């Protein structure tokens, strides 16, 4: 069955640096991937969607890439700020379902 | 728009009791999803509805779990009888068109079964 994995459970980054989170999937290439942000005690909030025919997507300080050869998506936050600290979830669309990874807890250190 | 509204936000119940979680999706959205989140298993899809009809309930763990959507603005997830392993955060989410569109989550119902 299709799996989606986020390799790092937790990541600490110095403020101002670029944070890079990784999402890997197995088997077939999903039609698209989504990235969500989840703050403690809150529901996930949609950030970005990237389709399999797109190499890169940007939104303000956020950038997502989709590499179908490596079966991987990278999520970048440039000029990171303490307010970016949260758990970030990637999700793949397949079989009319959105399947989520377990998330990476990102902490931006002032 | 008020977003997806879930109730109760927190529920503590004793093993064996019935638990009912409620959800009001965003007005105009025709797809509704129930997810469960735990530390061990992350966010798992339990069931989703399209136009009030259950499309895929393969994620429902067992017969103790049931979900209904009597109309476009209301859904329930019921656990009867509840067990300690059901303790988790249950999220309801909605979208305009199945999972092909952005999914909007509620704030979750935190369930503890003792």
Description:
The complex is a heterodimer of chains A (110) and B (114). Chain A is mostly beta strands and 110 residues long. In chain A, 34% of the residues are buried. Chain A is built from no helices and eleven strands. In chain A, strands 2, 4, 5, 9, 10 and 11 form a six-stranded mixed beta sheet that branches. By secondary structure, chain B is mainly β. Chain B is built from no helices and eleven strands. In chain B, the strands form two sheets. In chain B, strands 2, 4, 5, 6, 9, 10 and 11 form a seven-stranded mixed beta sheet that branches. Chain B is globular. The interface between A and B is medium-sized, with 18 and 23 residues.
Secondary structural class of chain A: mainly beta
> How much strand of chain A?
over 45%
One letter per element, helices H and strands E, the order of chain A comes to EEEEEEEEEEE
Order of helices and strands of chain B: EEEEEEEEEEE
* Portion of residues within helices of chain A: under 10%
The termini of chain B sit apart by 36 Å
What is the average of the pLDDT values of chain B? 94
The Cα radius of gyration of chain A reads: 13 Å
Strand content of chain B: over 45%
Which percent bin holds the helix content of chain B?
Answer: under 10%
Helices and strands, with pairings:
The complex is a heterodimer of chains A (110) and B (114).
Chain A: E1 4-5, E2 10-14, E3 19-25, E4 32-38, E5 45-51, E6 56-59, E7 62-67, E8 72-77, E9 86-94, E10 97-100, E11 104-109
Chain B: E1 5-7, E2 10-13, E3 19-24, E4 31-38, E5 42-50, E6 53-56, E7 65-71, E8 74-79, E9 88-95, E10 104-105, E11 109-113
Parallel strand pairs in B: 2-11
Antiparallel strand pairs in B: 1-3, 3-8, 4-5, 4-9, 5-6, 7-8, 9-10, 9-11
């Amino acid at each position: 069955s299709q799996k989606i994995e986020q390799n790092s459970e937790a990541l600490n980054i110095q403020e101002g640096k670029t944070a890079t989170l990784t999402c890997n999937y197995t088997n077939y290439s999903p039609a698209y991937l989504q990235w969500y942000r989840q703050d403690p005690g809150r529901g996930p909030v949609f950030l970005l969607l990237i389709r399999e025919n797109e190499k890169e997507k940007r939104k303000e300080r956020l950038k997502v890439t989709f590499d179908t050869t490596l079966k991987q998506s990278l999520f970048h936050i440039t000029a990171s700020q303490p307010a970016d600290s949260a758990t970030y979830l990637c999700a793949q669309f397949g079989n009319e379902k959105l399947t989520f990874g377990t998330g990476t807890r990102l902490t931006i250190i002032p | 728009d008020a977003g997806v509204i879930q109730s109760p936000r927190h529920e503590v119940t004793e093993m064996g009791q019935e638990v009912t979680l409620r959800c009001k999706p965003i007005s105009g959205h025709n797809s509704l999803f129930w997810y469960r989140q735990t530390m061990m298993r992350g966010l798992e899809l339990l069931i989703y509805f399209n136009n009030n009809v259950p499309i895929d309930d393969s994620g429902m763990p067992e017969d103790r779990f049931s979900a209904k959507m009597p109309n476009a603005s209301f859904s329930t997830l019921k656990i009867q009888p509840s067990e300690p392993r059901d303790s988790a955060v249950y999220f309801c989410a909605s979208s305009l068109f199945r999972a092909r569109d952005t999914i909007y989550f509620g704030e979750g119902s935190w369930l503890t079964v003792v």
